[in-house]
Amino acid sequence: MDAVHKGADLGGVKRRVHIKTYGCQMNVYDTERMLDILRPLGFEPQAAADGADLVILNTCHIREKAAEKVYSDLGRIKAHHDAKAADGGQMIVAVAGCVAQAEGEEITRRQPMVDMVFGPQTYHRLPEMLAAAGQERGGPVLDTDFPVEDKFDHLPEERVAGGVSSFLTIQEGCDKFCTFCVVPYTRGAEQSRPVDAIVAEARRLVASGAREITLLGQNVNAYHGEDAAGREVGLGGLSRRLAEIDGLARIRYTTSHPRDMDDDLIAAHRDVPALMPYLHLPVQSGSDRILAAMNRKHTADEYRRLVDRLREARPDLALTSDFIVGFPGESDLDFADTLKLVSDIDYAGAFSFKYSARPGTPAASAPEHVPEAVKDERLAGLQQLLNAQQEAFNRRTIGTTVPVLFEKPGRQPGQLAGRSPYLQPVHVTAPGIAVGDIVECRIDRLQAHSLFATPVVSEDGGALPNETEAVA
Ligand code: SAH
Ligand code: SF4
Ligand code: F3S
Questions:
Q1: Residues within 6 Å of ligand 2 by CB
Q2: Ligand 3 centroid from CA 97, angstroms
Q3: 106-165: pLDDT as tens digits
Q4: What is the CA radius of gyration of the chain?
Q5: Domains in the chain, start-ordered, CATH in brackets?
């Protein structure tokens, strides 16, 4: 709190900040929190970099393309920066997030315009960093510590909710060290926030309009926070606690590791109605040889059995995954095992990526890199299968009635866009429904990846609210 109050003395005048967010939902959350810190300093967010007093790129280092994008964006921002300087103004440019953590000073070497470089664990020090950057001290401000203090203890309580559906980070960092992945290096060791702090933040989000909260962590189901009595609580237990909050209708979490899917969390999928029947459970590959080389610490069959247990607990569970094709040493047979696993599981959707060698990770120095053309071919084959499964999943919901949480206006006038329990986008054009409502809707048709639906109308002609979810 200290930092925030000190920073508040800096301002008085209105200033404009532009933050561009790359990468995962945890960066989206961090961006919201940076804005929570910056608002009391007089900063108003704006959608474009042009003319801003402060530009922050909240970056992602997961694949080469993501990291390189930051440098090309910095090139574009330089034009705005120089134009502002020519007018006698100042634009402070900051690189935050995982590229900042991974590359540190290298960023200012490649782009000397950059004033501040700070990692995901130090953005609570933004007020001090801004003060230092404003003082023309003859060098960029660099802060890529993994500090002993917990940033969450230094963030303001005030939160501007991300809307009807909000993110809440409950766990950070990762101790899994998959051999392809930068996250353990950019986000540091695994750490869980205390239960009470999370419940309090969830209550504040609900009070400011959230009806759905997605709990975030690089390894969210490794969550093991302490409650007020000093007892360790897992993600299953935390979901039960959060489900008691009046007005919180839906709970989701992402991203999970198959190894941390414990019995209690599986039981929560059976017992907690607010826990949505949707699970992103990345498997990466269907080949045991590749899974071992990736250090995923489970086999394809162990994953299949885990999915069986999850579906026993919650038969309608929609499952999604991430895949990497062309991991070093991946043969045609290994790839065929991935296709086989996908066929066996039958996913509701998935993300798939070509392996990208990341500096400093063990797999990057492996001898047998897969040629780019082979990666392309495998990616296309995998995506074809996954797209067909996603479409089949969406088609199966046509004709069913599901509760839809409306999140925002749709593209057409009078239309609202929402989500089914299975996270499918659903569009409805009907009077009498507002953002934040949960309404029973019959799914009529599928177009591209969106479903179109009609509210189920009650006898008095009004849209029928959903009984189990409309708890507010
Ligand atoms: N914590 C999550 C993953 C976070 S990264 C988990 O354990 O599953 C999101 C996804 O990016 C990963 O699931 C993986 O599929 C992909 N990814 C990570 N590193 C990658 C790399 N070096 N090349 C290609 N894809 C990668
Ligand atoms: Fe990366 Fe693996 Fe940790 Fe996920 S579990 S963040 S893929 S190291
Ligand atoms: Fe990217 Fe960092 Fe998230 S590397 S995926 S922004 S944890």
A1: 174, 176-178, 181, 183-184, 218-219, 257
A2: 8
A3: 999 999 999 999 999 999 999 999 988 876 656 788 888 888 778 888 888 877 767 899
A4: 23
A5: 15-143 (3.40.50.12160), 151-396 (3.80.30.20), 401-455 (2.40.50.140)
